[in-house]
Amino acid sequence: MAQTPETPLAIIKQHCRQEADTASLAKQLAASITGFMEQNPQGHLNISLVGNLGAGKTTFARYLIQSMAYAGKVKSPTYTLCEPYTLKTNSGEFTAHHFDLYRMRDPLEWQEAGFGEYFDIPGFCLIEWPEKAEGTLPPFDLRIELLPGVNENERSVTMTALLNDGHHVLNHVIQNLSK
After folding, report:
1. Where are the strands (E) in 5-151, listed by range?
2. 37-50, pLDDT tens digit by residue?
3. Which site from 19, 61, 129, 151 is most exposed, i.e. has the minimal number of CB atoms within 10 Å?
């Protein structure tokens, strides 16, 4: 399950001047992931969310999951380590597992908690603080890095496709952003 070297297949860099821009970018990604899941009902994506404390990782995750028509509250998994969300497409259901590994002290903690099986079921795993489990996570399809800007709601977001499925998803985002 060791991570493979990160060789970008595609990259999107967006400067989000306000929170609405960040929400819009997450919505574009949500539409692309939903399309991927409709075409691949048994598919699975691994997405890392990278950034310093307060960079907006959980907020981005919230916008992403809510943009997939999830009506409930999207909670921060800081204390639970993982929050699952059942999402629907025209071709069925899939699960988003939102992880926050910030409080982990040892890379094997998430495996000992039984989370490894979540990487094999249809849907996606969205992992904040992936470096806390470095060397024990499966390869990432997408890497999303958030950097805070000068103003409170300003962000620079870089989305990088690292594997073919991530490339497929990111290409749809690129196409939609260029319209």
Report:
1. 10-16, 44-50, 82-89, 92-100, 123-128, 142-148
2. 999 999 999 999 99
3. 151
